[in-house]
Amino acid sequence: xxxxxxxxxxxxxxxxxxxxxxxxxxxxxxxxxxxxxxxxxxxxxxxxxxxxxxxxxxxxxxxxxxxxxxxxxxxxxxxxxxxxxxxxxxxxxxxxxxxxxxxxxxxxxxxxxxxxxxxxxxxxxxxxxxxxxxxxxxxxxxxxxxxxxxxxxxxxxxxxxxxxxxxxxxxxxxxxxxxxxxxxxxxxxxxxxxxxxxxxxxxxxxxxxxxxxxxxxxxxxxxxxxxxxxxxxxxxxxxxxxxxxxxxxxxxxxxxxxxxxxxxxxxxxxxxxxxxxxxxxxxxxxxxxxxxxxxxxxxxxxxxxxxxxxxxxxxxxxxxxxxxxxxxxxxxxxxxxxxxxxxxxxxxxxxxxxxxxxxxxxxxxxxxxxxxxxxxxxxxxxxxxxxxxxxxxxxxxxxxxxxxxxxxxxxxxxxxxxxxxxxxxxxxxxxxxxxxxxxxxxxxxxxxxxxxxxxxxxxxxxxxxxxxxxxxxxxxxxxxxxxxxxxxxxxxxxxxxxxxxxxxxxxxxxxxxxxxxxxxxxxxxxxxxxxxxxxxxxxxxxxxxxxxxxxxxxxxxxxxxxxxxxxxxxxxxxxxxxxxxxxxxxxxxxxxxxxxxxxxxxxxxxxxxxxxxxxxxxxxxxxxxxxxxxxxxxxxxxxxxxxxxxxxxxxxxxxxxxxxxxxxxxxxxxxxxxxxxxxxxxxxxxxxxxxxxxxxxxxxxxxxxxxxxxxxxxxxxxxxxxxxxx
Length: 726
Fold this sequence. Notes:
Layout: E1 7-10, H1 25-46, E2 51-57, H2 59-62, H3 68-86, E3 91-96, H4 104-107, H5 110-116, H6 124-136, E4 141-145, H7 158-161, H8 184-198, H9 220-234, H10 240-245, H11 249-263, E5 285-293, H12 301-309, E6 316-317, E7 343-344, H13 362-367, H14 370-385, H15 390-393, E8 398-403, H16 408-413, H17 423-426, H18 429-440, E9 446-449, H19 455-468, E10 474-481, H20 487-494, E11 519-527, H21 528-533, E12 540-549, H22 561-575, E13 584-586, H23 595-607, E14 615-618, H24 621-624, H25 631-645, E15 647-648, E16 668-669, E17 675-676, E18 687-693, E19 698-706
Parallel strand pairs: 1-2, 2-3, 3-4, 8-9, 8-10, 13-14, 13-18, 14-16
Antiparallel strand pairs: 5-11, 5-12, 6-7, 10-11, 12-19, 15-17, 18-19
């Protein structure tokens, strides 16, 4: 049997927190299991002759927000102690306050919230001394041990209110005390003080007005306490949901002001605001800014243009800092499970990220896919170039549409990162767009699209549709591609997609597949009338867009020339233009021996009739490889620069026309050197097309028109120097 035990200390406990609507039999059972059933079992097995000390909680005396089941279990524990001690047994239940150096309160940092509410915390030394004194005195029944600052205690219970001294701090005027109620400044001060107390901070300090309180340390239980405090101070009834629906201090104060105004006596009820239906407009869409980062240490559109004019080939050996290509490289194209190329076009410093600038904790930043980090930075650069600052962005109806098809980060970190609470969001493609909306406070549609190589140009089409439908006031369209693992090189090699030579020899007889590349691009779009009214610099206008599908083509991944013709015709129809109006086409141009001829044939059939000027064909892939999910938006940025400068760069690697390309009867130019567009001295608007075709058959085409910068109004008055979030 069990050895003789003189005394037992029962300190077990399990939290099963939840507000009352979220409590359940299961939560109550969990809380009771450790506390109540544990006590009964210890008493029955050991029957200690000297003492049985039960560790209860002050929650059983004062209550605790969100801990109804825990408080009930401890209250039952106290009742058992009183019952057993009344029968002569040496049983004592100690209703402890929050211990600051160990236990559940320390692990959950609940003692900070307790201190903010006027309850002191218990150090190990104080708790040990109190327990020794209670045992020495032979105390039985139930005793509460909790330091209390009576001047700060905010608990309204008859048990403790008679000990409280009157608060001397200035109170916010209640509605019954002032005709107009508290001012906005008074409300902000009240919310600041109450939030600080709920978060365990010093009164009124360390809270950023326009950052979510949850991001600054407020948890769900703190939200309950904050709601209770605000309700008490303002004689209102607000719940935790109200607090969470208005996440920042400024938003919460404004919402409380509106609530007070609507419930103030003799104040006429506000008229319900008529819901204005968004009006559709077919006007052109202005491109008001762009930003990019590309291989070859290109960090801006201007640097991109310099790289294009210089005819630089940005393809290199795969850097060892990414992954060890030697582990999978085999020059034999038929080797199974190997990559027959060791070349690609890579950006520099993809591991760098200014997390402090965006207020992201370093632990969360480390779990973020570099694609999320890079596009976040480039999106900010695009907004800044468009004249937006933090204040103008917050709560604006701006949509975010992102093209992304690469998932290396999730695959290379999946198993060993599952316990990281930030990894799920950090590796999710949907969060690439959603995080931009969250951090900048954008309320328009936010989504990440994956139609493979056409992803970001399909995103442009969707953004244009939402702008014309009045759903968004502006839209950010972005694309990103970062290569972090050898898996896609092996997979693309198995499908014989990649160039053995390691480059995109677009339109050339030596074309043998595409070279993979990295890049990030973003553009900000607005309805043309809005851009002109706001004084934005209009870089170019989108006249028409279209997206379609190959359908039942030769194979799932084989290009379909008829579908390409159809999508180009559709975009021109939307633009109100004819094929002969097009001056330049930024082609999909991957550099495959069959894909290039099919694309050029489609262009010939749509653009070739009745031309009085040549159309110039280009492909940025010849410089930086195929950027996959980011290819479309980067091609768009190049086309914008071509229109602005009325000049098309040469195509790298083009020496001899692919013999399968038939240019007979098609007035087309494939330049190898920078080539002027339009006739000398001509000032008419130029028209460009941009094509992007997904390998699963989703095709996109965008029609652009140049814009006279002098006609686009003054420089944006909102433009400011780059600054952080503070």
